[in-house]
Design goal:
The structure is a homodimer.
Chain A (H helix, E strand, L loop, with lengths): L6 H8 L3 H9 L17 H15 L4 H12 L5 H35 L12 H7 L4
Helix pairs in contact in A: 1-2, 1-3, 3-4
Chain A binds a DNA duplex through helix 2.
Amino acid sequence: MKDEYTIGQLAKNSGVTVETVRFYVQKGLIKQPTPKSGYRKYSFDDIIKIKFIKRAQYLGFTLNEAKELLELRVNNRARCGQVKVKAEQKLDEVEKRIKDLNIMKRSLKKMINSCSNDEKFVTECPILECFEKDKRC
Amino acid sequence: MKDEYTIGQLAKNSGVTVETVRFYVQKGLIKQPTPKSGYRKYSFDDIIKIKFIKRAQYLGFTLNEAKELLELRVNNRARCGQVKVKAEQKLDEVEKRIKDLNIMKRSLKKMINSCSNDEKFVTECPILECFEKDKRC
DNA sequence: ATAAACCCTGTAGTACACTACAGAGTAAAG
DNA sequence: CTTTACTCTGTAGTGTACTACAGGGTTTAT
């Protein structure tokens, strides 16, 4: 577990491209290391950081939100409660989206089932009505 | 329920801005009406369409996907079978999206629960560890 | 009749999250 | 020692979904 990664090694180890690393550096998510030789050397912690960012994005956080979380992580005066509040906000968003998608799913299923006769015209298909009228199909 | 809306009235009635309507027209989601007088007049169906688009977007579909769905709706020469195929594709997408969101939901919930003491410092907060270690907390 | 409010076309700018070079320098392998 | 692979800085382009004008014309209310 060395601590001297070129940008390419960092990229490879954290599962992103070199360009993405540069992008994160530019956005201030990763600190730009000062080059001792010709190339800049990144640390193992930078791998951790990028994986953190990727996971945060997967969990529905934006890059800026990921940056905020990283700053909380780095700033150890921050309290657990602050992180919790952010997570709870995201949970609300996620739950709302799931609810709506389930409505959509039911609508689509109902349409597929009602669409037994392939020769029927679209106007007789119920899905788009469900969509339009905002009703619980 | 008149059928002669100026762009401003259309925008107001469908809950978007005038610029957004123009954007949808430009993108081909709304048909550009030919002006009888000086101003173009939109129909009640355009209100329905914009609400349809907004609902589709809210449910996680892109503008292009919304356009596809609208095209199915509008083209009544399309047969039920064609719509069915698209609906089945969308259903797969919706189910995948729900699955991913449920994973997110579970992760976020476990994170929140593990963060019982708000006064703990971030370094002691398990939320960020969950993030970092890529484990199913 | 005139002023405010609205509409027209067209172009440019914004935010997000990258992605793709160009042109030059550096490091490592054979 | 030369070739290949990698790195550097910097700028520009992509796609999505708007948002903001500029510089006109039109409608409506008073």
